[in-house]
Amino acid sequence: MSGNSAGRLAGKVAIIAGAGGGMGRSTPLWFAAEGAKLMLVARRAEPLAAMVSDIEARGGEADYVTADLTTVQGGVKMIDATIERWGQIDVLFDNLGDAAASGLRLHETDEEAWKYLVDINLHTGYMCVQAAIPKMQEQKQGSIIFVSAAGETRQRANAGYGAAKWGLIGLTRSLARQYRDDGIRVNCICPGGIGDTRGEEDAGLPPSELVRGGHPADIAMAAVFLASDESAWISGVSIDIDGGESMM
């Protein structure tokens, strides 16, 4: 993989929120391979610094900022750092979330666990978007991509997690309508089970050469499409990427 000045995301600046690992690791590599300049965001600096070094070693361009995106201050810090470094924001990929304690049934979920699941899985989306939209309005364009694992699947024992992720789908549709006239597109990726952290070694290969099913690369390729001008007339949709799991 190397940065691509003629790639599908050439000239675009993308924020990857929740870039610490898994899908959050694979997606930046794919974005960089398609020519995007990146701002990586998470709470811990170490994985972000390692990712930036990896991207730069492959010929891409990236920087990072640490931020707590459950707070207003964290969202502002993320946007300010991106504008200072790159001067614009074209794409916001929100990969934030945590399924901790989500295996409990509703009557077993205490208030603290419920609030945590909603905070980390839904409230962070609000914080990211609230901070990013004014700049996108100024630019008259932008693409926002949420990730809602469990949002479209039948969850037996994930009430708090599932409710928060369903909330992201509702937020996607509302924002797509509210900001359509500003040139801002909002879409949501709904992954099924992702088996491992494969993906970075696949970046840059044509889809026909990939081992299909259950890899972060599957999500990253969809995110590249939604971030690119190829999806310029797509907004307000949630896309199941689960090998048909949601149809079962």
Outline the fold blueprint.
Layout: E1 13-17, H1 23-33, E2 37-42, H2 45-57, E3 61-66, H3 72-86, E4 91-94, H4 111-139, E5 142-147, H5 159-178, E6 184-191, H6 216-227, E7 238-241
Parallel strand pairs: 1-2, 1-4, 2-3, 4-5, 5-6, 6-7
Helix pairs in contact: 1-6, 3-4, 4-5
Task: Describe the model.
The protein is of the alpha/beta class. Helix content is 40%, strand content 16%. It has helices spanning 23-33, 45-57, 72-86, 111-139, 159-178, 216-227, and strands at 13-17, 37-42, 61-66, 91-94, 142-147, 184-191, 238-241. The protein has a seven-stranded parallel β-sheet, sandwiched between helices. Helix 2 (45-57) links the parallel strand 2 (37-42) and strand 3. It is globular, with a radius of gyration of 17 Å.
In short:
By secondary structure, the protein is α/β, with parallel strands linked by helices. Helix content is 40%, strand content 16%.
- Please state the overall shape, judged from the principal axes of the Cα atoms: globular
Radius of gyration: 17 Å
User: Which consecutive residue ranges, at least 5 long each, have pLDDT under 50?
Assistant: 197-202, 205-212
Tell me the number of strands.
7
Specify the CATH class.
Answer: Alpha Beta
CATH architectural type? 3-Layer(aba) Sandwich
The tally of helices reads 6
Give the distance, in angstroms, between the N- and C-terminal Cα atoms. Answer: 36 Å
Please write the string of helix (H) and strand (E) elements: EHEHEHEHEHEHE
Cross-sheet strand order for the largest sheet: 3-2-1-4-5-6-7
